[in-house]
Amino acid sequence: MLKAVRLEMLTDTPMAYIESLDAARRQTDTQWQERATAMSADASVTLVADSGVDGSGFCGLMRVVLKHPQDPGKPLQAMLISVYVAPRHRGLGLADELLNRACKAACEDLGAQHLELGVHQDNSRALAFYRRHKFETTGASRPYPQDTSKLELFMERCLPWQPTAS
Ligand SMILES: CC(C)(COP(=O)(O)OP(=O)(O)OC[C@H]1O[C@@H](n2cnc3c(N)ncnc32)[C@H](O)[C@@H]1OP(=O)(O)O)[C@@H](O)C(=O)NCCC(=O)NCCS
Question: Is the residue at 115 inside a domain?
Answer without folding.
Answer: yes
